[in-house]
Amino acid sequence: MRIGAVIVAAGRGTRAGGDLPKQWQVIAGARVAAWTCARFTARSDIAEVILVVHPDDQAFAQEIAGVRIVHGGASRDSSVRLGLKALGNDLTHVLIHDVARCTVPTQVIDDVIAALNRSDAAAPALAVTDALWIAKDGSVSGTQDRTGLYRAQTPQGFALPAILNAHTKHTGGAADDVEVARAARLDVVITGGDEANLKITTPVDFARAQTLLEQSMDIRLGNGFDVHAFEDGDHVILCGVHVPHDKALKGHSDADVGMHAVTDAIYGALADGDIGQHFPPSDPQWKGAASEIFLKHAVALAQSRGFTISNIDCTLICEHPKIGPHAGTMKATMAELMGLDADRVSVKATTSERLGFTGREEGIAALATATLVKL
Question: Can you tell me the mean pLDDT for 304-331?
């Protein structure tokens, strides 16, 4: 199987309250849609992720890495249909998921994919265990037998040609994609749902989702420290920015001490060595290399292991040059290289009060901390 995913996020979510549609509100440090998409983009068995959004939400959607953005339609089923049509022709199966289910457990996704090996359609659900009432005018007017009743969840998985054909022929108005599949006479296998697979619908659901996210997150901290001595020159490179100075920094690469510290902080959070192990100074190909090569490698390595970089904090330690006038540019440069919002990157400076080698202006040191998060 070659599997794609369609994340449906074009709704307005008014019942959830707030100034923004629920999928763009922030919980546990990231937008709901970012948490949801990460459940799928981090998987090696999902080849492509389509995020279907309202045209007004394009800017929010562009914040999310690893997805292809498609504009949705006037209804949920029309948005799904547009997402399905955008999937690559080489894909054989698709998972369709509601963006509001940002806490979907890995096992729920695994079970749906496993069921697609024996069926053209599969979806998670939980058996109804509560007594069911029928109400009229605020009072109980009857009861409903719960035998054979299930609470539907997503992602719902399908053979791609079958569900695309079903959606193309459907007249519209379906509650979910299982309803569309059944209208096309597809047999849908029920897989195990999970109470943790919460769908954010009302304001109180945000707190429940945040608790679940915080319980399931793998949070890593890494530290990086680097030092480079001065040599003759007319500028230094710090956090990707050329800063005029009466000296340069000496090193095998471009000697960007700030970027090296950040890179090592990411490697440290991954417990995967340091720059010297990944890019040995004994290897002549790295002579004079731009340090962004090392940083991008560390970022890609973190992403390949399912981690998102939550924030970076870098402190440059020197008497001169003065960092303040350049700190904003450094911050923006580092954020762009790592694919982060600028407010997740800190670049600041301090002196050593004329003490030690930095106080004697023999070189520059840098200290960095990286926080990595995996669902």
Answer: 94
Do the Cβ atoms of 367 and 315 come closer than 8 Å? yes
* Burial class of residue 108 in the structure, from the number of CB atoms within 10 Å of its CB (0-12 exposed, 13-18 middle, 19+ buried): buried
Nearest to 231 by CA among 212, 215, 252: 252
Whole-prediction pTM value?
A: 0.68
Distances (CA, A) of 222 to 269, 298, 309, 314, 347: 4, 12, 11, 12, 16
Model confidence at 375: pLDDT above 70? no
Q: pLDDT digit string (tens) for 52-95?
A: 999 999 999 998 988 999 999 999 999 999 999 999 999 999 99
- Which letter does DSSP use for residue 219 in this model? E
Q: What is the DSSP letter of 132?
A: E
3-state secondary structure of 373: strand
- pLDDT at position 214 is 84
Instruction: Residue count of the chain, please give it.
Output: 375
Mean pLDDT of 195-211: 95
Concatenate the DSSP letters of all residues of 82-127 into one string: HHHHHS-TT--EEEEEETT-TT--HHHHHHHHHHTTT-SEEEEEEE
H/E element holding 225? strand 218-232
What are the structure tokens assigned to 65, written together? 């890495």
Distances (CA, A) of 89 to 2, 3, 43, 47, 243: 10, 11, 20, 12, 49
Q: DSSP 3-state assignment of 191? A: strand
Sorting pLDDT into bands at 50, 70 and 90, what band is 250? Answer: very high
The identity of residue 278, as a single letter, is: H
DSSP percent split of the chain into helix, strand, coil, nearest 5: 35, 30, 35
DSSP SS3 for 268: helix
**What span, in angstroms and rounded, lies between the C-alpha atoms of 271 and 85?**
41
Token pair 């020159």 in the structure block, residue? 233
Helices 257-269 & 324-338 angle (0-180, nearest 10): 40
